[in-house]
């Protein structure tokens, strides 16, 4: 083959690659590398609730485990308020570089199903990274209430329509939606008042003090108080009992045939975050919840490791939004009180 006239004779035998495509290839390869490792910066794991709730309980287990796998500090930032919306807003506005992540539960779907009038939701602004765990919600009460089981709660609600109240972490929270769905699954009509709180932590403080009759919370949030006897769990929302509290029946086996609703928790990132970055985060999260030692801690709080891909998590999120939107319409829930 004759030498290329544009090259020196001694270089004619070397392979010739066009310069521009080669440079573009190197740039693309650089962009494809996960860009999480940024010296001096910590990954913000935003939780849209005050300390003490179920999301916070899981986040404080997940953060150090992910930090070990990512080789970078993960710092929890609690931004409570507006049923988790303030936390979602903080991450949606963050740079799309993987350094700000949102840990959310199915209240994210609930707030999408019940948007604040005149304000957009966050589904388009946040990309699902992956589901991590699922758990039951639990209806809990305090020993001084005199209610010892779920049948007793139903009887009391029927005897005094509208007199009993159930605390929930915000009007339009997933626990509010779950409570509405569970009560509607019980044969006959039950009327209770739902009392909104800024999160599961503040709710449980009032419940332990006897200021409200009952609360619907992620079981993890109430696990310590239940095990210490300061609160009593009446029923869980999953179809079967939970290994952490095997003595507590499910709604399905006791008062609401076939009812099942598990709460999930997963990670979101700002829209536009490179897929290579979200994939690395998802892999670190999945490896963390798969660790046997960590699973023991999760099981004690009623959590079950249930890691999924980003695509599967997106389907779960959108399906939950649709289910909650249906109960919003059926129950006439208004978003202006969220």
What does this structure look like?
The protein has 338 residues and is of the alpha/beta class. It folds into 2 domains: 43-134 and 263-337, D-Maltodextrin-Binding Protein, domain 2, CATH 3.40.190; 136-254, Periplasmic binding protein-like II (D-Maltodextrin-Binding Protein, domain 2, 3-Layer(aba) Sandwich). The protein is 41% helix and 18% strand. The chain is built from 12 helices and 10 strands. Strands 1, 2, 3, 4, 5, 6, 7, 8, 9 and 10 form a 10-stranded mixed beta sheet that branches. Strand 1, helix 2 (54-70) and strand 2 form a beta-alpha-beta unit. The relative contact order is 0.19. The model is unreliable at 1-34 (pLDDT under 50).
Write the topology of this structure.
Blueprint: H1 19-32, E1 43-47, H2 54-70, E2 74-78, H3 85-92, E3 100-105, H4 107-113, E4 126-141, H5 150-159, E5 165-168, H6 174-185, E6 193-196, H7 200-208, E7 214-218, H8 219-227, E8 232-236, H9 251-254, E9 262-270, H10 275-290, H11 292-300, E10 304-305, H12 310-331
Parallel strand pairs: 1-2, 1-3, 5-6, 5-7
Antiparallel strand pairs: 3-9, 4-7, 4-8, 4-9, 4-10
Annotation field: number of helices: 12
Name the overall outline: globular
Which homologous superfamily in CATH is the superfamily of the largest domain? Bordetella uptake gene, domain 1
The CATH topology of the largest domain is given as D-Maltodextrin-Binding Protein, domain 2
How many individual domains? 2
Text of the CATH class of the largest domain:
Alpha Beta
CATH architecture of the largest domain: 3-Layer(aba) Sandwich
């Amino acid at each position: 083959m004759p030498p290329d006239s544009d090259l020196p004779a001694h270089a004619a035998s070397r392979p010739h690659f066009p310069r521009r495509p080669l440079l573009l290839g190197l740039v693309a390869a650089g962009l494809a590398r996960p860009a999480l490792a940024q010296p001096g910066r910590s990954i913000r794991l935003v939780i849209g609730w005050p300390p003490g709730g179920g999301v916070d309980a899981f986040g404080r287990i997940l953060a150090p485990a992910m930090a070990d796998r990512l080789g970078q500090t993960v710092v929890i930032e609690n931004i409570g308020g507006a049923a988790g919306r303030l936390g979602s807003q903080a991450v949606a506005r963050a740079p799309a570089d993987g350094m700000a992540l949102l840990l959310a539960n199915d209240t994210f779907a609930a707030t999408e199903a019940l948007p604040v009038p005149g304000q957009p939701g966050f589904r388009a602004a946040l990309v699902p990274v992956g589901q991590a765990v699922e758990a039951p919600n639990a209806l809990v009460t305090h020993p001084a209430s005199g209610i010892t089981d779920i049948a007793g709660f139903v009887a009391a609600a029927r005897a005094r329509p509208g007199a009993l109240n159930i605390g929930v972490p915000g009007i339009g929270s997933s626990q509010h939606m779950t409570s509405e769905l569970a009560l509607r699954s019980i044969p006959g009509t039950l009327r209770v008042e739902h009392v909104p709180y800024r999160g599961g932590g503040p709710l449980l403080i009032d419940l332990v003090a006897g200021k409200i009759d009952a609360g619907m919370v992620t079981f993890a949030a109430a696990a310590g108080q239940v095990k210490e006897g300061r609160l009593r769990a009446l029923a869980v929302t999953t179809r079967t009992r939970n290994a952490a509290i095997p003595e507590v029946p499910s709604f399905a086996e006791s008062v609401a045939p076939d009812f099942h609703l598990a709460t999930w928790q997963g990670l979101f990132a700002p829209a536009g975050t490179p897929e290579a970055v979200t994939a690395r985060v998802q892999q670190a999260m999945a490896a963390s919840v798969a660790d046997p030692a960590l699973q023991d801690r999760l099981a004690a709080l009623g959590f079950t490791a249930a890691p999924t891909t980003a695509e599967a998590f997106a389907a779960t999120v959108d399906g939950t939004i649709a289910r909650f939107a249906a109960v919003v319409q059926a129950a006439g829930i208004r978003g202006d009180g969220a």
